[in-house]
């Protein structure tokens, strides 16, 4: 066993922040068009809510109000579903696949034209670093529309031997961690397959969905084909329980997903659920350790850890455990926590006050249960919601920090001796969304990958997404796939 | 000369490759349409369900790891063994009042359905897999893997063909099954267990229980180590209950209620896909 100091030395100490400061490099929001008030997007028009209630959307990086947003209640959902039904029966549902595809292509192009504006707003409303919204979220949004546009007139090749047809009206509920991207994951395949849509954005991040509605309006999509509403859980309940919804697609927590599955019992509605996760990132002794450390950082600190497939559990083989830990400690010292609009920022703001409190509770619990915590020494702004990158050691399988989805920048670190033990620990949660494997040995990747009960396995990489690549969970992480060819199936009935 | 006395058969349940009675010691009497008592049948308990799920879970790893070719061979072997025992099954169906010709057709359709799914074992993976042309420098592919332990409520109205039609796609796909047999006509399922037993099907892959739906549906659908539930009776109240319980651990729920189990329209690989999970794997490409 190497002494602590030797390890520190071996791991190197390239912490530039000790040597110089980064100059601020903020993205300017001056060309962003932000309205003071956003109304519901129903039947192609921005429509005030029936009950006249509005709520505030707050910038989590400075706690300032960004805009007021309409709260949809039952009469609004009734109107939205009726509009979607009419569009399905009269306009969108009558279009050929080819014409549908052209509308979706048009939306993709318009998104690309306004990509920077969307990226900035996404960072302002949700707190994610501009580096991510600019380089990951928004380009992927356009890519998903582009990918599914092309499927619209080729669906018979996606379901060999069967004639596919749409469900009808899809009710879609999305989370706050990737507001635009989740809207794209939901809307693009629904439209390609000929369904119409009522989509609810998340309570803390409703703004970019309405910006998307502007694009949809500009694209000339037949009114009612896509309806976008906002509100909290009660609004979602109205969508799920609406008798004229044919299919429900939900992304969010396992807890809410279970409630939805239960409330759909006894109906003939189809459903897809994309729920929580507690992914294990498994690092073997023969891995390229520096690459693995980068992957671990990307796995848990990408998007402040607000990622259902985040690599929130690190399983590291004993022989390299101390080295990996020290390298990780050094690496998180270099992470810049702060203004999401600053191009140097690695970790932005926690999405909401409520989420920050939830994360802090888990951290407290982790300490109570005997975990050994280390946080980076980053300075965080005085206003806004922030959480420094956090590591936990000396945690065991039963600790809540190992079992529960925290949805924050908190990594639980455990060790293992044999591949079998790693697999057993990796699978020992009710979740099964994703997993990571770091090793130089190809056969080990395939063997371990086969045994991880999860819908996405990243080998020597992590948190990669692509419209052609199906995504979704095993076990309590959900039902059905989104993305790729497989992502069409939940929106199609087969004859 | 005295007439020879028939040797009557004791009908048992089948779990973990063993023929067992209910741990509860309970039984029920199965009758034909005219009310004639045919035999005593085991009346499974909640504990029998739990034991069977545990057995199915234990058998799952090995069965899922078998090569698709091997699973196909075993499915085909079931068909072969059943072919040799056609007469017995025809007779058992006729005991319940089914006409000779219809019983014969049903047994033959059952054998053919096994052959049909045997053939899919090493093909559905190709049909439902994809290599995904991602924009980044990664090799990315998706392929189906078995969902796990599947609870099957075999159709009440089609005790042999219906049973095999729901069981074959589940086990072809590498899942293990806990099956609640037809309640009204339990005898063919109990005898089918003997066919499974002599067909190289590893113990625990198929666990056949007999008993009352009103007693057992709840425990099957609530069980936290059951990954999916397949129900084909078409009773809407039961469907509602099953899905409500399924939400406890996000079980996959498949409801189906075909009118005619002999229809070839029922034969497609999408029933296999219903009990598969798609796994997507990413590998970087580079030196």
Describe the structure.
The complex is a heterodimer of chains A (495) and B (287). Chain A is of the alpha/beta class and 495 residues long. Chain A contains 15 helices and 20 strands. Chain A folds into two domains: 4-23 and 277-459, 3-Layer(aba) Sandwich (Aldehyde Dehydrogenase, Chain A, domain 2), CATH 3.40.309; 37-275 and 474-494, Aldehyde Dehydrogenase, Chain A, domain 1, CATH 3.40.605. The model of chain B has no long low-confidence stretch (mean pLDDT 97). In chain B, β8 (176-180), α7 and β9 (206-209) form a beta-alpha-beta unit. Chain B is globular.
List the chains of the largest interface with their residue counts: A-B, 45 and 38 residues
Q: Which structural class do you get from the secondary structure elements of chain B? A: alpha/beta
Query: Briefly, what CATH class of chain B?
Result: Alpha Beta
Task: State Rg of chain A.
Answer: 23 Å
> What name does CATH use for the topology of chain B?
Aldehyde Dehydrogenase, Chain A, domain 1
Number of strands of chain B: 12
Low-confidence stretches of chain A: none
Strand content of chain A: 15-25%
Please indicate the count of domains of chain A. Answer: 2
- Helix amount of chain B, in percent? 40-55%
Question: Major sheet of chain A: size, sense and barrel closure?
Answer: 7 strands, mixed
Looking at the overall shape, the CATH architecture of chain B is 3-Layer(aba) Sandwich
Q: Give the helix proportion of chain A (percent range).
A: 25-40%
Structural class of chain A: alpha/beta
What overall form of chain B do the CA principal axes indicate? globular
Adjacency order of strands in the biggest sheet of chain B: 9-8-7-10-11
Q: Brief overview, please?
A:
The complex is a heterodimer of chains A (about 500) and B (about 290). By secondary structure, chain A is α/β, with parallel strands linked by helices. Chain A has 15 helices and 20 strands.
């Amino acid at each position: 066993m190497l002494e602590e100091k030797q390890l520190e030395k071996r791991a190197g100490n390239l912490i530039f922040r000790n040597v110089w400061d980064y100059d601020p490099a903020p993205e300017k929001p001056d060309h962003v068009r932000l309205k003071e008030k956003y109304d519901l997007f129903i039947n192609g028009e921005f429509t005030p809510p029936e009950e006249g209630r509005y709520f505030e959307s707050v910038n989590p990086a400075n706690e300032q109000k960004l805009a007021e947003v309409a709260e949809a209640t039952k009469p609004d959902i009734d109107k939205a579903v009726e509009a979607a039904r009419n569009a399905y029966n009269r306009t969108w549902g009558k279009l050929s696949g080819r014409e549908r595809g052209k509308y979706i292509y048009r939306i993709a192009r318009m998104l690309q034209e306004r990509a920077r504006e969307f990226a900035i707003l996404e960072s302002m409303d949700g707190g994610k670093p501009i580096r991510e919204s600019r380089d990951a979220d928004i380009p992927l949004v356009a890519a998903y529309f582009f990918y599914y546009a092309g499927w619209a007139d080729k669906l018979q090749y996606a379901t060999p031997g069967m004639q596919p047809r749409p469900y009808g009206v899809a009710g879609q509920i999305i989370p706050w961690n990737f507001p635009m991207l989740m809207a794209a994951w939901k809307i693009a395949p629904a439209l390609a397959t000929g369904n119409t849509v009522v989509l609810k954005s998340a309570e803390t991040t409703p703004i970019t969905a309405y910006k998307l509605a502007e694009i949809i309006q500009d694209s000339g999509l037949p009114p009612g084909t896509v309806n976008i509403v906002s509100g909290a859980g009660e609004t979602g309940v109205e969508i799920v329980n609406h008798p004229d919804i044919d299919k429900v697609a939900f992304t969010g927590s396992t807890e809410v997903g279970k409630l939805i599955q239960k409330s759909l019992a006894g109906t003939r509605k189809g459903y897809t659920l994309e729920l929580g996760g507690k992914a294990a990132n498994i690092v073997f002794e023969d891995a390229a350790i520096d690459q693995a450390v980068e992957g671990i950082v990307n796995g848990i600190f990408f998007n402040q850890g607000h990622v259902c497939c985040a690599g929130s559990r690190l399983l590291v083989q004993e022989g390299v455990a101390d080295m990996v830990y020290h390298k990780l400690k050094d690496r998180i010292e270099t992470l810049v926590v702060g203004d999401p609009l600053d191009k140097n920022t690695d970790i932005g703001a926690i999405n909401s006050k409520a989420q920050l409190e939830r994360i802090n509770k888990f951290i407290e619990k982790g300490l109570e249960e005997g975990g050994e915590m280390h946080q980076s020494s980053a300075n965080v702004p005085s206003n806004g919601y922030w959480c420094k990158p956090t590591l936990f050691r000396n945690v065991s399988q039963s600790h809540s920090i190992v079992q529960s989805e925290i949805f924050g920048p908190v990594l639980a670190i455990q060790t293992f001796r044999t591949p079998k033990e790693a697999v057993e620990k990796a699978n020992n949660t009710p979740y099964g969304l994703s997993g990571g494997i770091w090793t130089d040995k190809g056969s080990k990747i395939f063997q371990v990958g086969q045994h991880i009960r999860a819908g996405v396995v990243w080998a020597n990489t992590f948190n990669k997404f692509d419209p052609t690549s199906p995504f979704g969970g095993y076990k309590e992480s959900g039902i059905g796939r989104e993305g790729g060819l497989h992502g069409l199936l939940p929106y199609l009935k087969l004859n | 000369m005295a007439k020879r006395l028939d040797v009557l058969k004791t009908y048992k349940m089948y779990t973990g490759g063993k023929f067992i009675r209910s741990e509860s010691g309970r039984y029920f009497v199965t009758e034909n349409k005219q009310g004639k008592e045919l035999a005593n049948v085991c009346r499974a308990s909640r504990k029998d369900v739990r034991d069977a799920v545990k057995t199915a879970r234990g058998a799952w790893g090995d069965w899922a790891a078998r090569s698709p070719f091997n699973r196909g061979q075993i499915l085909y072997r079931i068909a072969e063994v059943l072919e040799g025992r056609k007469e017995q099954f025809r007779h058992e169906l006729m005991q319940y009042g089914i006409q000779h010709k219809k019983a014969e057709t049903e047994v033959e359709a059952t054998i053919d359905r096994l052959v049909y799914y045997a053939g899919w074992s090493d093909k559905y993976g190709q049909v439902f897999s994809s290599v995904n042309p991602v924009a980044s420098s990664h090799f990315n592919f998706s392929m189906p893997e078995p969902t796990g332990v599947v609870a099957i409520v075999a159709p009440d109205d089609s005790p042999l063909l219906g049973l095999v039609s729901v069981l074959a796609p589940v086990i072809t796909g590498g899942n293990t099954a806990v099956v609640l047999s037809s309640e009204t006509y339990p005898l063919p399922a109990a005898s089918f267990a003997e066919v499974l037993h002599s067909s190289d099907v590893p113990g625990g892959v198929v666990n056949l229980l007999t008993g009352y739906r009103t007693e057992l549906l709840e425990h099957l659908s609530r069980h936290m180590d059951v990954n999916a539930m397949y129900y084909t009776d078409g009773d809407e109240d039961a469907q509602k209950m099953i899905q409500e319980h399924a939400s406890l651990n996000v079980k996959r729920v498949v409801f189906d209620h075909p009118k005619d189990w002999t229809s070839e329209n029922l034969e497609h690989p999408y029933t296999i896909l219903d009990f598969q999970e798609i796994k997507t794997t990413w590998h970087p490409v580079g030196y």
